[in-house]
Amino acid sequence: MRVLVVEDEQLLADAVATGLRREALAVDVVYDGAAALERIGVNDYDVVVLDRDLPLVHGDDVCRRIVELGMPTRVLMLTASGDVSDRVEGLEIGADDYLPKPFAFSELIARVRALGRRTSVPLPPVLERAGIKLDPNRREVFRDGKEVQLAPKEFAVLEVLMRSEGAVVSAEQLLEKAWDENTDPFTNVVRVTVMTLRRKLGEPPVIVTVPGSGYRI
To answer: Which keywords belong to this entry (predicted)?
Structure first.
């Protein structure tokens, strides 16, 4: 899952991004509304964690732009105000969820995960395919009932493949969904991660390489 964090308090923004990355999410960070509009015009995000009171371009206008573009991106709006009227206004603008500050990080994670599941084809909270069971919320993976320990990027790649439900996922798509924008697109990081993931999942192999196209489970 790829997430954009938009928050003008840089320490908070970086802390949120670090925490989300530890949950095996790909995270980009910007500190104002203008930069947020630039990023959503270039990258496809599953969820935008959006502070409402932003410099340069207000968070409300960023949210409206996402809605106007008809993007499937889900918006979790953050604000220092927890008044009911503010929450209602934020939802009416187009936000999918609303979280007042200060917040518990565990709740933020749960809300981001929940929004990420609201795809065009709703997916269950626990993904199962080819003997693999993946629980994004608990960060657990089992194969044939035996737990498999994965590094965050390995988990992220497996989650993207599981969510594709048998469709082929290109290396470029994996790079976009499992890594942030600071990753060199010309590295072999996807291939190496898939190789390690295959080894950890054991025999027989469940990740199939489709020559010239990508990978699938």
So the answer is: DNA-binding, Phosphoprotein
